[in-house]
Amino acid sequence: MSKKTLTLMSKDKQLFNIEEHLAVQSVTIRNMVKEDGASSVIPLPRVDSETLALVIEYLNRQQAPEEDEDYVKKFVDERGEIPTLLELAQAALDLDIKKLMDAACMKVADLIKDFTLEEVREALRIENDRTPEEEKAIRDEFQWAF
Amino acid sequence: MAPPPPQLRTTIEKLPDHLLSNILIRVPARTLAQMRSVSKPLNALLSQPSFIKSHLHRSIHNNNDEILLVFKCLLSKQVTANPTRSPHLELPNFIKLPVADYESDDYTNHELMGAVNGLICHLFTIDDEYLVQIWNPSISAFLQLPIPGVTGELENSYRFGFDPYNDDYKVVRLAMFREDRVPYVLVEVFSLRKGCWELIDERFPAHLFVRFENVTRCGDDRVCGDGHDGRVHWLCHHEDDFYLETIVAFDLAAERMSEIGLPVVNKKDRRNALGVLGGKLCLMSCLKDHECEVWLMNEYGNAESWAKHHVFSQFSANNMSPFGFTLSNEFLFARFEVLSIYDPAAAKVKSFMFKVGPDAKVVPYVDSLVWITPDKHKNKS
């Protein structure tokens, strides 16, 4: 029996082929395949092609189960840029690929924990809506944490 | 794909809250406390009870690098021990007792009463006056409890636990009095939500005695783990037979006492202590000149469900004293006063390079945001 192949389509309409038994590591894809056989193309309107290429690379890994933990850590370490990691984490969340999501979120958490407030805002794309006075008020209220 | 309209291009595309919380539950509590200044929506997210719970759940269950806080160690004051990294004591830079004046003084005035979800309940005795505090070392916040309503007692025994039904933390105090030589016990409960002590009608079983000499031990075991599932426990003895023991459980939600029988009949040659193993109540029972048995109560409240879980036959009970179990189910004990840890999966003992006194206590450190907005935070006064 030949292995069944699925086609995934990114937000920018690029197509990616992947063997079905590898693709169903994603719980979201597994459910879609179960529901309608997913004969045609599976659209992933929130994942861009660069990120999808990474996800496919991850799903295609040929790792012994006992090395998997190290592999996924190294996989996200090599993509240490926060914007890339955020895209990857979001895609892993949407597609429900737990290990990849865990590792990507953990990596971002590790990176931002030593950031200044301004750096945190930039990394997590948060607008500063605090006036300097408010910031000082919080700092005073929670001075034990600073 | 069509480019976004120009007015949207200048604003930053926000990250979905779901992604943000998945990242932030992996950030240490102290850093998160600082991140409250980042923005108002982020502050709101970090203060959500559901976020605080997810953060806590993760730090309890994904704790690969377990840290133990050791109190009343013989060599030093408050210290940490790290089973995976080093057999030595480490002086913590993140844990500082919240009463400045007493840090330099004699440590005998400090007692641990319990620890749950990263909160530690402890007591300082100052000139015969009790100061009870609930303390979160992760975020260096503490709350000093008001003075209990009933005073003039002969003895006190405290327990601390989480009431999941009311999502509340409670301190239970047994206060023993004597009238015409007849002892009686009043039960008072402090609720963190209510912020006050309340004397409750429920009476402590009259035919049982708390071992008040162990007044401050948490859950009778020395690894504070009691009180995590809405109940706290006392190991008590019968009025007419000191060696006949039974457990008194207090349900924090219903505020009711009940008795649970032990699986072994205590004789003079046994020393019993309560503990928690894998979320279940356990009894550590050491036989003189023999081994130490660990019994597990598989079905809570059912004395028939006690099962012998493990026998530590390799150590004579004469020179070892059981502490209890860590969050990763490793057995902590003192052997010739040296704190040691036994990993049942690997069947290996590891000894730490320090001694602990007979009243030492161990708290598994849990990074926690619980009660990030204390009603009042008193600075060292």
Largest interface (CB within 8 Å) is between: A-B, 32 and 34 residues
Give the low-pLDDT segments of chain B. Answer: 1-10, 100-108, 214-219, 374-381
Biggest sheet of chain B: strands, sense, closure?
7 strands, antiparallel
Mean pLDDT metric of chain A: 87
User: So what's the overall shape of chain A?
Assistant: elongated
Supply the helix-strand structural class of chain A: mainly alpha
Helix content of chain B: 10-25%
Overview of this protein structure:
- Chain B: This is F-box domain-containing protein.
- Chain B: It comes from Centaurea solstitialis (yellow star-thistle).
- Chain B: Residues 9-55 form the F-box domain.
- The complex is a heterodimer of chains A (146) and B (381).
- Chain A is built from eight helices and three strands.
- Helices cover 58% and strands 9% of the residues of chain A.
- With 146 residues, chain A is mainly alpha-helical.
- Chain A is elongated and about 60 Å long.
- In chain A, strands 2-1-3 form a three-stranded mixed beta sheet.
- The model of chain A has no long low-confidence stretch (mean pLDDT 87).
- Helices cover 12% and strands 44% of the residues of chain B.
- By secondary structure, chain B is mostly beta strands.
- In chain B, the strands form five sheets. Chain B has a seven-stranded antiparallel beta sheet with strand order 3-2-1-23-22-21-20, with no helix packed on it. In chain B, strands 4-5-6-7 form a four-stranded antiparallel beta sheet, with no helix packed on it. A four-stranded antiparallel beta sheet of chain B has the order 8-9-10-11, with no helix packed on it.
- Chain B contains six helices and 23 strands.
